[in-house]
Amino acid sequence: MANIERFFFEHYGLTEAGLARYLEAALSEGGDYAELYFEHTTTSSILLDESLVKTATEGISMGCGIRVLSGEQTGYGYTDDLAPERILKAAKIAARIASGPARLSSVGLSEIANTHDIYPVASPATERQLTEKLELVLRADHAARAYDTRIKQVRVSFGDQVRHVLIAGSDGRVVTDFQPLTRLGVFTIAKDDSKLQSGTSGGGGRVGLEFFQNDHSPEYFAGEAARQAIVQLEAREAPAGEMEVVLGPGWPGILLHEAVGHGLEADFNRKGISAFSVASELCTVVDDGTIPGRRGSLNVDDEGEPTQKTVLIENGILRCYLEDKLSAGILKTSRTGNGRRQSYEHIPMPRMTNTYMLAGNDDPEEILRSVKRGLYAVSFGGGQVDITNGKFVFSASEAYLIEDGKVSAPVKGATLIGDGPSVLTRVTAVGNDLKLDPGIGTCGKDGQSVPVGVGIPTIKVSRLTVGGTSVGKLQSFQ
């Protein structure tokens, strides 16, 4: 097993015989399936605040999670000590939790070669000098401050990791992967008299430091964060009421991810708590874990299954759900490569990778010109979503009024209120300008966080509730 020998065998003395022994221990109390998930992660991070390096860290973590499935029951144990006796103890704990009638006396293992190679990284950022990363951070800080004298505070963060994983199952499959991840973020605060406003930007993906050049330079992200803060200084209070809303391309796809995507994860559907059925025929939504270099992409998911492009909604019709091994087994469907976990300490569950809506045929400028009175939401900040029914409240971090078909004044304090299933039925135009986010997304679910990507073209929603503070302005939207 070449990959095992190259990393896990060399570093931790793992052998094929040892893997088989751990799996047999995991099934010693019965059970249908057992799985070993070995993980070794190298990380570094820098935080610059007020032009001072507040933290600079490097670290290594490793461990093994052991899962046993018995029907719908899951047993899980883990250890951060890879000594054989500690792994065996975790395996026996998982075995006791998910004991069952099935029993496997021996396990024969065979390494499965990855069908994808989607991380175009010549030199992982974790192998570069900390001074090279600090230079990127300092460049961003300088560029943000130089943008406008009203930028009074800048915070820049940089983080990278490389995760080596080995996944061995009692079905005999052994899969390994090497997963790089890099991210740069910029946060600014602008002040004008007594007014304070903030802006954020950033980017990254499964890339190396070479990513931060040209269109993805630290200066670009710093300029975007500073621009957003300055725009908000001039913004008027947002209107409130039900109106037409145009969502800009790219990062606004976070609304699609949160309000729609979670409802299409199979664990909600096998529990009977998903609210999804159909959408506008203009809407086709996919989840694709195979896009090279993207933050949400993976060669294999955290169960060792190759990722794929999965059509969730096609021309408004629900086609399938995102499946992990457990849900696919219960629902008698095929796995989609969406079994994901935060680390070896966590059980896998159905999660999104890169989720986006396909481009349509409409000209984005024509979409805007078709709106007499409405809101143009360009970027989102925080929000709250009930993922069992898709109901959401999102705060727009950058938004503008649309008046007589023209984008006019910026507004602040705008929130979008609704539910994902209803929003998709009200989509009346889809632009030809699909854009993916710059590579900053992290998704939380059941206490676990994983990196994801989102995307959307310009779309028009015929009716959506906008929460704001300017009641007097509401009249012009009726």
Structural account:
With about 475 residues, the chain is α+β, with helices and mostly antiparallel strands. The chain has two domains: about 230 residues, PmbA/TldD fold, CATH 3.30.2290.10; about 240 residues, no CATH class. The chain has ten helices and 25 strands. A hairpin with a 2-residue loop joins β2 and β3. The C terminus is likely disordered.
Short description:
The protein is built from ten helices and 25 strands. The protein is α+β, with helices and mostly antiparallel strands. The chain folds into two domains: 2-233, PmbA/TldD fold (2-Layer Sandwich), CATH 3.30.2290.10; 236-477, no CATH class.
List its traits.
seven-stranded mixed beta sheet, PmbA/TldD fold, 478 residues, six-stranded mixed beta sheet, alpha+beta, 25 strands
Topology overview:
Elements: H1 2-12, H2 16-26, E1 33-49, E2 52-70, E3 73-79, H3 84-97, E4 110-111, H4 130-147, E5 151-169, E6 173-192, E7 195-205, H5 218-233, E8 236-237, E9 241-247, H6 253-259, H7 266-270, E10 285-288, E11 309-314, E12 317-318, H8 325-331, E13 339-340, E14 349-350, E15 354-357, H9 364-369, E16 373-386, E17 391-403, E18 406-412, E19 415-419, H10 420-425, E20 427-430, E21 435-436, E22 442-445, E23 448-451, E24 453-456, E25 459-467
Parallel strand pairs: 4-6, 8-18, 9-16, 15-24
Antiparallel strand pairs: 1-2, 1-5, 2-3, 5-6, 6-7, 9-25, 10-11, 10-15, 11-12, 13-14, 16-17, 17-18, 17-19, 19-25, 20-25, 21-24, 22-23
Helix pairs in contact: 2-3, 4-5
